[in-house]
Write a structure and sequence with these properties.
The complex is a heterotrimer of chains A (about 375), B (about 300) and C (about 300). Chain A is built from eight helices and 21 strands. By secondary structure, chain A is α+β, with helices and mostly antiparallel strands. Classes of the chains: A alpha+beta (about 375), B mainly alpha (about 300), C mainly alpha (about 300). Chains in contact: A-B, A-C, B-C.
């Protein structure tokens, strides 16, 4: 059970005593004329960590990444790489490398020459360059294609070469800009596993930008969820999923039923008043600037998979009367769209073999109180 | 931490540089332009206002322009030139637009060969072409032989040394230059746009009018600049196939300079055709803008 | 079943909530359209080629025709006109001069044109638009003015007309042509390749040398072909600045004006035309290979010349 009302979600929660972060953003803001793309963002990325920037388009994640790469300069704030202020350092001098969404392979160079580009610019000795290039290509499993030209490769293959081209320079941090966006679903899933494996193997910090929350959850050690230029929450996937601290995060990650109410009490365990009911929950999440006093507006977040649907009123504290509206078979389960009290729409996940339910049937919802989560805040 | 970037604190992926380095790069081209292009034009302007002859000196006068703009002989040559070039341009546009559209959308495997054929006509020597057409069009030439053979005419028609001859030669010579800019403009049109329009029930006429014509406006302007303006400089075509009837303003200018040594009048005439060219370009830009707004 | 029958019969199906439009009777099947299009292409190509190239073929025919007058009756095959043409000193000199001037001015135009393109496309400074427009002027201003202006100016500063004066004028009109083609190529360039190069540690100079210039090679090749062709075929500007020297196009013109010994002109014209066709074809093959190698569309490059 975790109550963290004082947590400042803008700062990461690296454990104390950890070695200095590979990368740090310190109150970074980026304005383009009237528009503020990135608003006072502070983040830390640990060494060897797979860190994702997750959010819808326009949330500022790509701009943040480009500032890390050196293609945009912050309007305010500092950027530190390995503890050193790198805010003014041009991209060709930074120990970062970027993997592009459209691969950006040099079309007139072979796979080998593409990957060797970085080491050549660094003026390494020929045998050393050769060794590194072949090793990088082996890591991404493209060592058979050394002499091919980019035009002869498929999308997935080009992406691997792009990855090798970046990794071969042994960067402090690898930046990835929605690299799997152009691939089809199956290939994307395969590449996600590949990328994770490679990251573990080389041990480099990855900063990964995506709008696909499933992707971020699958691959990341920690995720920073962004919206409108601000960081909503930073934490490991489980934390983000089970204990979101803002409504946006709760809605953005997976499906969530958000029932509005007021906070009855926060400790020893949170309780929410919804209409006449007072419902207990397992945890409460809130941003530092949001009230968690008694009477504060909150939501009760119920993930569809914790809900159980009964024909008759079940024993226990919690039993919400609902009416079934729609049932959709989804393979692993059945999605039930229900209508609860005050006409509130509720989504529940029933087991795949749940049968006998039809649209229009009345029923009761129950769940284990400890699995409910309270999110502080109002609209 | 690099001194070289002191002048450009915004690292914009290396695409833009600042003023000082621009001067270094543009120095030689601009110098060449000034010495070999601007200076001669400036001096030519001066000559047009002087009584200069082949010796190059003379006093300031408006007489040249007065004569050029006033004397009826010059006016009639100007008129003839405009008639000939407008006719040629009209024919070209009528042919070029459907051809360019065809090339851009429907040609399939013929697209590159046809494109190459067009480019080839452009690379062939213009004087050789003129000579060839002279042979084709004379009294014993191919056209006459064919017409007589088919029984369309009884006697050979006079094709050579007429205005028509010049029009034919101008039109066939400039086809590539008109088709290709329009083709290039049409090629930028997304195929999906047209398919969407077809799906919504638009007829080809509508598509032509609403989508293709406005988009090729830029191509039309380019065509005017590339094709019409040179027609005003062309004295080879009139000389080889035009004769006295197909006499154009450029022939007159050449005559003033070489045969009569009358540099003052010649240069005044040159600036008149420059003015005409400018007006044509301006008009075509206006028309295309209106066209785009109207659609 | 009833619904499908009704639809197939072309009648609207009353009362169906989706789609009340019926299927019209099909006349222009896709297959028929394709046939017509193919036939139309063939006809167009044939007719067009006849009009555009027919006269040249006629010249070729006449050049081999063993007849002193230019008649269409075939009197026998002969090469004597070719022998006469190649023996003609004036002709040889004019051809040689034109090739030399074109050959020397092309590289200079490439350099000046590329510098201009970069200066205009990759630098920001006040007055950039004006400079760009000024550099494009030689292409827009009537060539008569350029030629005549050069004539009077060279005369004024006592520079005698020669191949050099011709070359200089070819340069000043040729390099804007190169600039136009190269500028277009620069605008088409994928910026993410630049960012990738910088990201991988290339300085701006290395970016230029290893990424940008290799990309420009096809465009530069196309520009070279167009400028060389333009210079060789140039008439108006050359006419006024050539003085007593001989250049090929002007030589043909004066021959036509004199009207003497024309069969000789037939022969050399056919030779030059044939040579042009061969050169254009070779140039196209090389261009296509170079374009494919750097992932560009050859049609854009080919159209880029005249389209500027």
């Amino acid at each position: 059970m975790k109550t963290t009302p004082d947590e400042r979600p803008e700062l990461s929660d690296l454990p104390d005593g950890a070695p200095s972060p590979a990368l740090e953003l310190d109150h970074v803001t980026k304005r383009f004329g009237e528009v503020t793309a990135v608003d006072d963002v502070s983040l830390q990325v640990a060494r060897g960590e797979f860190f994702s920037l997750l959010g819808p388009s326009g949330c500022g994640k790509t701009t943040t990444l480009r500032m890390l790469a050196g293609f945009e300069e912050p309007t305010a704030g500092r950027l530190l790489l390995d503890g050193v202020d790198a805010t003014q350092v041009p991209p060709f001098k930074r120990p970062t490398n970027l993997v592009f969404q459209n691969y950006a392979l040099f079309p007139h160079m072979s796979v080998y020459r593409n990957v060797a580009f970085g080491p050549r610019r660094a003026r390494l000795a020929k045998p050393e360059i050769d060794r590194r290039v072949r090793e990088a290509l082996r890591t991404v499993q493209m060592d058979e294609m050394v002499d091919r030209m980019p035009a002869q490769l498929s999308g997935g293959q080009q992406q691997r070469v792009g990855l090798a081209r970046a990794l071969v320079n042994d960067p402090l941090v690898l930046l990835l800009d929605e690299p799997l966006g152009a691939l089809d679903l199956k290939l994307r899933k395969e590449m996600q596993i590949e990328l994770k494996r490679i990251q573990r193997e080389v041990g480099i910090s990855f900063v990964y930008v995506t709008h696909d929350q499933e992707e971020a959850m699958t691959m990341s050690d920690r995720i920073a969820v962004m919206s409108d230029g601000r960081v909503e929450q930073v934490g490991p996937p489980r934390e983000i999923y089970f204990h979101p601290s803002t409504r946006f995060v709760a809605d953005f990650i997976g499906t969530a039923n958000m029932l509005p109410g007021t906070l009855e009490r926060a400790t020893p365990r949170p309780e929410v008043r919804i209409g006449d009911l007072v419902v207990a929950a397992g945890s409460i999440g809130a941003r530092s600037d949001v009230s968690t006093d008694t009477g504060a507006p909150v939501w009760l977040m119920l993930r569809p998979e914790i809900l159980q649907l009964h024909r008759d009123r079940p024993a226990g504290d919690v039993a919400v009367p609902v009416v079934v509206e729609d049932l959709t078979f989804q393979g692993a389960g059945v999605r039930a769209d229900l209508r609860g009290p005050a006409d509130a729409p509720i989504v529940a996940t029933l087991p795949a073999d749940a049968s006998g339910w039809r649209p229009g049937d009345p029923g009761f919802l129950s769940w284990e109180p400890a699995r409910g989560h309270v999110v502080a805040g109002s609209a | 931490m690099s001194a070289t970037d002191a002048g450009a604190p915004r690292v914009r992926s290396g695409t833009t540089f600042g003023r000082r380095s621009a001067a270094a790069v543009l120095a030689s081209p601009v110098l060449t332009l000034l010495v070999l292009f601007a200076a001669p034009l400036a001096y030519l302007t001066w000559v047009s206002f002087s009584e200069a002859d082949i010796t190059g000196d003379g006093s300031f006068t408006f007489d040249n322009y007065a004569e050029v703009l006033g004397e009826p002989i010059y006016r009639s040559v100007f008129l003839d030139t405009i008639v000939i070039s407008f006719t040629a341009m009209a024919i070209l546009f009528v042919i070029a637009f459907p051809l360019a559209a065809f090339l851009a959308f429907r040609a399939g495997k013929w697209e590159i060969p046809m494109l190459l054929a067009l480019v080839l006509t452009d690379e062939l020597n213009p004087l050789i072409r003129l000579y060839a057409w002279q042979i084709v069009m004379n009294k014993e030439g191919v056209i006459n032989k064919v017409l007589q053979g088919l029984g369309i005419v009884d006697e050979p028609i006079t094709l050579l040394f007429t205005k028509t001859a010049v029009v034919v030669v101008l039109a066939t010579g400039s086809l590539a230059f008109v088709v290709i800019p329009i083709y290039a403009a049409l090629k930028t049109v997304n195929r999906n746009l047209i398919e969407a329009a077809r799906d919504l029930g638009a007829s080809w006429v509508t598509i032509l009018r609403e989508i293709l014509l406005p988009l090729s406006a830029a191509g039309f302007i380019a065509a005017i600049i590339i094709v019409f303006v040179p027609m005003l400089s062309d004295f080879a075509s009139p000389a080889v196939v035009g004769g006295r009837e197909g006499y154009m303003i450029a022939s007159l200018i050449e005559e003033e300079f070489n045969a009569r040594g009358n540099w003052g009048v010649g240069s005044a005439l040159s600036f008149v055709i420059l003015a005409i060219s400018g007006v044509m370009v301006w008009v075509s830009i206006r028309i295309s803008k209106v066209g785009r707004l109207g659609s | 079943m009833k619904q499908a029958e009704a639809v197939a019969a072309g009648r609207t199906v009353r009362g169906s909530r989706s789609g009340s439009r019926s299927v019209p009777k099909v006349v222009w099947t896709i297959r028929r359209r394709e046939l017509v299009t193919n036939a139309a292409s063939a006809v167009l190509l044939l007719a067009g080629s006849l009009i555009l190239f027919g006269p040249f073929l006629l010249l070729a025919f006449l050049s081999f025709n063993d007849s002193q007058i230019m008649s269409f009756r075939f009197d026998g095959l002969t090469l004597r006109f070719y022998q006469e043409a190649l023996a003609d000193e004036a002709m040889r000199e004019s051809l040689r001069n034109s090739l030399i001037v074109a050959g020397l001015t092309t590289p200079i135009c490439l350099v000046l044109g590329t510098l201009s393109a970069f200066g205009v496309a990759r630098f920001t400074f006040r007055g950039r638009g004006g400079v760009a427009a000024a550099l494009a002027l030689p292409l827009v201003v009537p060539s008569l003015l350029v030629g005549v202006g050069a004539l009077v100016t060279f005369s004024k500063v006592d520079v005698p007309l020669s191949l050099t004066t011709v070359g200089l004028m070819h340069i000043v009109v040729g390099f804007p042509l190169v600039m136009a083609i190269v500028t277009a190529a620069l605008y088409r360039f994928d910026r993410s390749l630049e960012e990738a190069a910088l990201d991988l540690g290339a300085t701006r100079r290395e970016l230029l040398w290893y990424v940008l210039l290799p990309y420009l090679v096809p465009a530069l090749a196309a520009a070279a072909i167009f400028v060389f062709g333009w210079s060789f075929n140039s008439f108006t500007v050359t006419f006024f600045t050539v003085g007593s020297e001989r250049m090929f196009t002007v030589w043909v013109f004066s021959r036509l004006r004199q009207g003497t010994n024309l069969p000789l002109v037939n022969a050399i014209s056919t030779l030059v035309t044939a040579g042009t066709v061969v050169v254009v074809y070779i140039a196209y093959s090389l261009l296509r290979r170079s374009a494919v190698r750097s992932g560009q569309d050859v049609r854009t490059l080919v159209a880029g010349g005249p389209a500027q």
